[in-house]
Design goal:
Elements lengths: L2 E3 L8 E2 H16 L5 H10 L7 H12 L11 H10 L3 H7 L7 H12 L2 H13 L18 H27 L1 H6 L6 H13 L7 H16 L6 E5 L6 H16 L4 E5 L2 H15 L9 E4 L16 H12 L4 E5 H8 L4 H4 L9 E5 L9 H14 L3 E6 L17 E2 L4 H7 L3 E11 L1 H9 L3 E5 L3 H11 L5 E3 L5 H16 L4 E5 L13 E5 L3 H8 L11 E8 L8 H15 L6 H12 L9 H6 L3 H7 L7 E5 L6 H16 L4 H8 L3 E5 H10 L2 E3 L7 E3 L2 E3 L3 E3 L11
Parallel strand pairs: 3-8, 3-9, 4-6, 4-7, 5-6, 7-8, 10-15, 11-13, 11-14, 12-13, 14-15, 16-19
Antiparallel strand pairs: 1-2, 16-17, 18-19, 20-21
């Protein structure tokens, strides 16, 4: 008898033959949607062949006795060698199934060293004796769509994901059967569609223009759902109901074509929480065995117990489902989606195979970073062309992605063919372009004071601080990334309350408010910036059409600054478009603007596509970062009620006494973390503003000032690290 893992809590050893065959079956099933079931079957069968060797078996026994070394003998070389005999690239997947995908040079060096070890061949000999079906009876053939190096690179990611998830799941089933039971989908697409239809019946009847447009958009979505899977555009004006209509398309489309799940990706955590809340209200029921909607981002609490220490099964489901996206509806961030697509480590990649034969809805798609568009769009193209997926590009400001080489030949269907008419019908604002001369902050403040309710959006955090000072109003509110997440949520709730109660409400914000935040101001002031940002923030003005027209005032700040790079280029392109005359209410305006902008930027600034062709998985993962790694997180203890502040301090103290809890603790503390530029963080540490929590832990505790309006403030309010 050979074993794969040490005994579980019931004293049962994990039989190696059973493990290999179970992982083989699971991997084949996960890879079947993209035509790789046979490759997956053998990959699963081969992945742990090295464990047949006596040295590994002795290692397991030593571990059971409590005197095993920290790391066991290699158990991947035997399977890698056998895989290499049949399909060369499969050997890299076997080698990486624990430590992550390496590049070819690192693999060759590793393989050359391991192949000299007699244990490798000895393990293969034993495995061949125990597993009659270990060698395929015919040549293994990769899918026919592998016609270029990048298609091969992406296919290897997907097949690797299938293997890793299968290995994790069977190992978990042995070690913790209770967790295994908690996994799984809560409802199928037919049941979800029935719930969705019932929720539509509860909507109030209204014959107003806004609701008429929403009805037409919804009906167009249902008609388009009949089309074959592929790439779609959902172009809907702000307030046109794309959150629910888009879900209607996704459900009907999935039902029609046998797609397995719906993945909604949005740019910001605040929109993720808002969107997940809407979908929970539609789909979830107290009688459900497990939740329907998985909300997956860095701010989600991963603990399985509530604040009183009571076990919560739905929290366990959320944590487990987040590992491999085994849920019918997933709401996540574009950062989580794309950085997983280009990761090389097992923890991030194991969910990727779930993207095959799924509906992937990218909301506010204009927010994708321009310098990463080539690899990002190529991944979407691969999913549509080769993995049976449908991708929906959803926004009011549709980019001209066909200008990017990786997307040039990808035809996209318009879900709503009457989009221009809907934009005209929902024209709810007039634009005032005050850019002939620059305005001082005092003049902008006067414009704010003239209104009972007004929103001002500026380009940098330093500009926001300057305008707040000029307004000089103790009741003014502020939104930016200088505020921790819990503070931002409080501000949004406060704004909604004041607006609904028709109380005075003035808000100064950076661009964090532009996409997806459901606020409705009668007047919006926007500092001159990228055109899509201007149009998006106009969606926070007269959103529900209660006024004949809202006012959007675009101004040029005399002392304002612009973030560098594409943002500055896009602002200049907006000036050019203004000179030619533009109509922000015409969706074609956005397309023309993006078409010109994409001629001025490099969509593959870091040459990721070249690295992908060379299978440089670790380097691709390092370079594909949607959020730059030049920031340091600091935990604020001075925000919120006394109870909240005490809770944060208790969590920090508990973490210091029990460092093994760091991952769960940081997730719970996420709402109280502010990101600070690394250079400024170093200065703050020297000044004593940031204290150490644990040795080696980069996240620190904030000892400086945390203002009730402005958020995190160092000694110098205009510190360069807080500019953008």
């Amino acid at each position: 008898m050979y074993y794969a893992h040490t005994p579980n809590a019931r004293g049962q050893w994990h039989d190696l033959l059973q493990h290999l065959r179970t992982v083989s079956d699971l991997t084949a099933g996960f890879a079947e949607p993209f035509g790789a079931a046979e490759l997956g079957r053998y990959l699963g069968l081969w992945h742990d062949l090295g464990k047949f060797h006596w040295r590994f078996q002795e290692y397991l026994k030593d571990c059971e006795a409590g005197n095993g070394p920290p790391r066991g003998p290699d158990h991947k070389a035997a399977g890698s060698q056998l895989a290499r005999q049949h399909v060369t690239t499969l050997a890299m997947l076997v080698q990486g199934h624990h430590g992550g995908l390496k590049d070819p040079e690192a693999f060759k060096k590793w393989f050359a060293e391991r192949s000299k070890d007699p244990a490798t061949q000895e393990a293969l000999t034993l495995a061949t004796r125990e597993i009659p079906e270990i060698n395929p009876s015919r040549q293994l053939a990769p899918p026919v769509f592998l016609k270029d190096p990048i298609a091969t690179e992406f296919f290897m990611r997907m097949l690797f994901s299938a293997l890793v998830d299968a290995d994790y799941l069977d190992t978990e089933a042995h070690g913790n059967a209770w967790k295994s039971v908690q996994r799984g989908m809560g409802a199928d697409m037919a049941e979800l569609w029935e719930r969705f239809e019932r929720s539509r019946e509860r909507l109030p009847a209204d014959d107003g223009t806004v609701n008429e447009v929403r009805r037409e958009v919804y009906e167009a979505c249902l008609r388009a759902a009949e089309y074959a899977p592929g790439l779609f555009r959902l172009t809907v004006p702000t307030g046109g109901g794309k959150t629910l209509s888009g879900m209607g398309f996704a459900l009907r489309h999935a039902l029609k074509h046998g797609l397995r799940r719906i993945i909604v990706a949005v740019p910001y955590i605040s929109i993720t929480e808002q969107t997940a809340g809407v979908y929970r209200g539609v789909f979830e029921d107290d009688r459900d065995d497990r939740p329907i909607v998985l909300e997956h981002h860095s701010g989600v609490d991963a603990e399985e117990k509530d604040e009183e220490g009571e076990f919560r099964p739905e929290r366990m489901w959320s944590r487990l489902a987040a590992e491999n996206w085994d849920a019918p509806i997933i709401v996540t961030t574009t950062v989580q989606l794309f950085e997983s697509l280009f990761a090389n480590r097992t923890g991030k990649t194991r969910k990727l195979h779930r993207l095959a034969k799924s509906v992937i809805m990218l909301d506010e798609v204009q927010a994708l970073p321009t310098h990463l568009l080539s690899p990002a769009l190529d991944a979407l193209r691969q999913l549509c062309d080769n993995y049976g997926s449908t991708v929906v590009l959803s926004t009011a400001t549709q980019p001209a992605f066909e200008e990017i080489p990786e997307f040039t030949q990808v035809p996209a269907r318009e879900i709503v063919p009457d989009a221009p008419r809907h934009f005209a019908a929902l024209k709810r604002v007039t634009y005032e372009w005050r850019i002939e001369r620059s305005l001082e902050w005092g003049e902008v403040a006067e414009l704010m004071h003239e209104e009972s309710q007004a929103l001002a959006v500026v380009n940098t955090k330093r500009d926001a601080l300057a305008l707040l000072e000029a307004i000089d109003d103790p009741d003014v509110l502020h939104l930016s990334t200088s505020l921790c997440g819990a503070h931002r949520r409080w501000v949004i709730d406060k704004v909604k309350h004041r607006l609904d109660a028709e109380e005075p409400c003035r808000l100064v914000s950076t661009q964090v408010i532009e996409a997806g935040v459901d606020l409705d101001f009668p007047v919006v002031l926007r500092a001159l910036g990228p055109l899509d940002g201007i149009i998006q923030v106009a969606g926070r003005c007269n959103r529900e059409g209660r006024l004949e027209h809202g006012r959007v005032v675009v101004f040029k700040p005399a002392e304002g600054r612009l973030p560098p790079g594409t943002y500055r280029t896009a602002t200049q392109e907006t000036r050019t478009a203004l000179g030619l005359g533009l109509d922000p209410d015409d969706p074609e305006t956005s397309r023309r603007y993006f078409r010109s902008l994409f001629q001025l930027v490099d969509p593959d600034e870091r040459e990721i596509q070249h690295k992908r062709k060379r299978l440089e998985y670790p380097e691709v993962a390092r370079q594909f970062r949607m959020i730059e790694e030049d920031t340091v997180g600091v935990i604020v203890t001075g925000y919120g009620t006394e109870e909240e502040q005490d809770g944060v301090r208790r969590e920090l103290e508990s973490l210091r006494h029990n460092p093994s809890r760091v991952r769960g603790a940081l997730r719970r503390l996420q709402p109280y973390i502010v990101a600070v530029r690394r250079q400024l963080a170093d200065d703050y540490r020297r000044q004593g503003f940031i204290g150490e929590i644990l040795p080696g832990l980069e996240v620190g505790e904030w000892h400086g000032k945390y203002d009730r309006t402005c958020g995190l403030l160092g000694e110098d309010r205009d510190a360069e690290g807080l500019v953008f």
